[in-house]
Amino acid sequence: QVQLVESGGGLVQPGGSLRLSCVASVSIFSFYTATWYRQAPGKERELVAQITNSKSTTYADSVKGRFSISRDNAKKTVYLQMNTLKPDDTAVYYCYIKLPGSSAGSWGQGTQVTVSS
User: Fold this and answer.
1) Which of 16, 22, 67, 117 could form an SS bridge with 63, CB 3.0 to 4.6 Å?
2) How far is CA 77 from the centre of its chain?
3) Tell me, what's the pLDDT at 1?
């Protein structure tokens, strides 16, 4: 069974930075596409950033230029560097990994990010 452990969330002031990490318990992490989603209270879960097994990246328009997704396949970890945080970035952030062509992937438990003064 795949397990994903997220960390790095917390309370930060507007304009601040956080780095989220997600460690996966899979045998060959490099095969997976990894995605960060977020869900704010009363809102639907939305894609924040994605990185493929070839390290191609995609970002939501709302975070372009502020967030950066990366991966370290040797450490089986995907990161989300979040800069210039805004109150609208407040949400639970979830890590999701999936093998290309498979019907379903695996979710992490989520980590809370709160941006407030």
Assistant:
1) 67
2) 10
3) 84
| Amino acid identity, position 98 | K
Tokens 């990246």 belong to 57
**DSSP characters over 11-76:** EE-TT--EEEEEEE--S-GGGSEEEEEEE-TTS--EEEEEE-TT--EEE-TTTTTTEEEEEEGGGT
Give per-residue pLDDT as tens, 13-53: 999 999 999 999 999 999 999 999 999 999 999 999 999 99
Dist CA 37 CA 69 (whole Å): 12
List, for residues 56-81, the tens digit of each pLDDT value: 999 999 999 999 999 999 999 999 99
Provide the edge-to-edge strand list for the sheet that holds 18-24: 4-7, 18-24, 77-82, 67-72
At residue 3, the 3 state secondary structure works out as: coil
Q: Torsions phi, psi of 88, nearest 5?
A: -65, -15
